[in-house]
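SECTION: protein entry
WANTED: fold as tokens:
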Amino acid sequence: MIDAATIESGMRRAIVESQSAVGTSSPNPPVGAVILDGDGLVVGVGHTQPPGGPHAEVGALRAAGEAAIGGIAVVTLEPCNHTGRTGPCAQALIDAGISQVHYAVSDPNPTAAGGAATLRAAGVDVTGGVLAETAARGPLRQWLHRQRTGRPLVTLKLASTLDGRIAAPDGTSQWITGAQAREHAHRQRSVADAIVVGTGTALTDDPSLTARRTDGSLYPHQPTRVVMGSREVPDSAKLRDGTSPFVQVRSHDPRDVLDALPDALGVIVEGGPAIAGAFLAAGLVDEVHLYLAPTILGAGASSVDDATVGSLTDAHRFTRAAVETVGDDLLVVLTRESDSR
């Protein structure tokens, strides 16, 4: 008899495995799955592959082979019950001879839900809610946010001095934060579906907006590069170099930007003060990543420009989720009290 501690250990392993799917599984959820044999030993692990590829359960079953017969599946999300680009995972688990399925989060998508009922009808012992909160706050968070709100989870990335400046009065800005902070920001890019800037940043800085390692090489996954605004971005711009998709949204409304990204689960806004202010004013910022340098300028461009804030009562308020030392800088992570906006 496998005890609850073994199942929870398997779920923690599945949650870690699901991180490998973040940024590549969209629009599908980044799921992790672990197959245990009758003794509770891990015999197969898998995560969601890019669209059209195997789901986590199928990958784990393939890794387990015949050891899956009579085994236990531990999955971060209720196994799907529909046929899309791939077949239903619930049926795959039944066909493989799995005897028990333990999942963390119930599938809120009515098209795919119902896997637990199908498994039970086939005689499989099913338990839901295993480490559900941990799984929901982990790699599944962005996908669950889209299921609730119909839009991706938006992270506003800011890098500034202690007094909120992103450039000196003469316009110089490279670099305010240190190398380790920039390295951290590139790792965040490497699991994002899209990065948004305005035409001002695109034309003035000519950024590549790629996700790069410290040696300059590219991470395997590159986010879609999005420019909002009406000014033309020339063909010679680095954003148009073909490294990853380029999208221009000829609008100043952040909602139009998100509507242009129907498959995105996580979007990073890296634009200048006006773009940051526009997303904040629209109530579309769910999380802030603020990299703070131990520097004071006293003058220069501010990190946010939002004309809708006239008094403290209009301020955009967040909850501090984490503070991390990154080299000589600080990373402050802020979240909304609710993701339902």
